[in-house]
Amino acid sequence: MPTPKFHLAEIDPVWSRIRLEAEAAIAGEPLLGGLVHSSVLHHPTFERALAYRIAMKLTSPEMSGQIFREIVDEALEDEPGIAQAARADIVAITDRDPACHTFLQPMLYFKGFQAVQAYRVAHHLWSQGRRDMAYFFQMRASEVFGVDIHPAARIGKGIMIDHAHSIVIGETAVVGDNVSMLHSVTLGGTGKTDGDRHPKIGDGVLIGAGAHVLGNIHVGQCSRIAAGSVVLHDVPSCKTVAGVPAKIVGEAGCAQPAISMDHRVPGE
Q1: Which of 147, 163, 192 is the endpoint of a domain?
Q2: Domain that holds residue 196
Q3: H-helix segments, 128-235
Q4: With a threshold of 0.70, does the pTM exceed it?
Q5: What is the DSSP string of 172-186?
Q6: What sections of the sequence does the record tag as coiled-coil (predicted)?
Q7: Does some domain include residue 2?
Q8: How far apart are alpha carbons 33 and 23 in whole angstroms?
Q9: Distances from the Cα of 213 to the Cαs of 79, 108, 247, in angstroms?
Q10: Buried b (16+ CB within 10 A) or exposed e, 9-26
Q11: Number of domains in the chain
């Protein structure tokens, strides 16, 4: 019996949509043809395009884009979950960010998406014992995107980091699936003590701009942290905390705050 043939959309709908949007982008703005072709249409798979995009963003006089690309290609081949998480991130960003109208936008333009994918490769390198290379990826991502994520941190899929300026995520931090955060968020420690010292963020949490979550504390799933808050203690699931230091001010307001993206504090 002959092997069945599948259309690209049946195998990888995210990649199929990106390619269609890339073609439409060139039709609307021909001057972007070189960028769009080299970043998307030149590549046979999402994985190859993602590797190219990460490499081109991180390249520097200290390491060529070709070497970066070889490292990323190898990481994506060794750990397919990296690209699957990237697809989930694109879907999450398009669903939650009203300024995002296509799957193509995060791939080409959104530094929050690009920084998280660079982190995912760095985390793979860290897990493989290639600590110095992982640190190099972290350094370049911080220089290029203004996002500093330690390669040992553990971050889930379906992540949206909106605007993504001045994000800091520490070494022992854990971020669950379907988490949304805005710019200037810190998941940090409270001093120079070594060991497990960073926050554990549950699934579906929404973290507002400028919020600082400090110490080895747990933020329960589907909770909300108001903008500008300083969180120093555990947060129960499905609650809203606000203030300096943060206190519980009400319920989360909905079942999935990271998806609804409603930052209003109860009573306002």
Answers
A1: 147
A2: 153-267
A3: 131-145
A4: yes
A5: T-EE-SS-EE-TT-E
A6: none
A7: no
A8: 9
A9: 30, 30, 12
A10: eeebebbbbbbebbeebb
A11: 2
- Co-location of 134 and 158 in the same domain: no
Same domain, 19 and 87: yes
Pairing status of strand 167-169 against strand 147-149: parallel
Is the bond leading into 236 cis (omega within 30 degrees of zero)? no
**Digitized pLDDT (tens) for each residue of the chain, 268 residues in all:** 455 544 444 589 999 999 999 999 999 999 999 999 999 999 999 999 999 999 999 999 999 999 999 999 999 999 999 999 999 999 999 999 999 999 999 999 999 999 999 999 999 999 999 999 999 999 999 999 999 999 999 999 999 999 999 999 999 999 999 999 999 999 999 988 889 999 999 999 999 999 999 999 999 999 999 999 999 999 999 999 999 999 999 998 888 999 999 888 766 5
Q: CA-to-CA distance for 169 and 167, rounded, in angstroms? A: 7
Specify burial of residue 39 (Cβ count, 10 A radius: 0-12, 13-18, 19+): buried
Residues 182/164, Cβ–Cβ less than 8 Å = no
Q: Rounded to the nearest 10 degrees, how much is the dihedral formed by the CA atoms of 38, 44, 48, 50?
A: 70
Residue type, 168: V
Residues 179, 39, 168: CA angle, nearest 5 degrees: 30
CA distances, 4 to each of 8, 10, 14, 31, 45 (Å): 13, 12, 21, 39, 19
Nearest CA-CA partner of 168 in 119, 122, 218: 119
Q: In angstroms, rounded to a whole number, what is the distance separating the alpha carbons of residues 172 and 164?
A: 20
**103 touches 18 (CB < 8 A):** yes
Q: Estimate to the nearest angstrom the gap between the alpha carbon of 21 and the chain centroid.
A: 21
> Mapping DSSP to helix (H, G, I), strand (E, B) and coil, where does residue 38 land?
helix
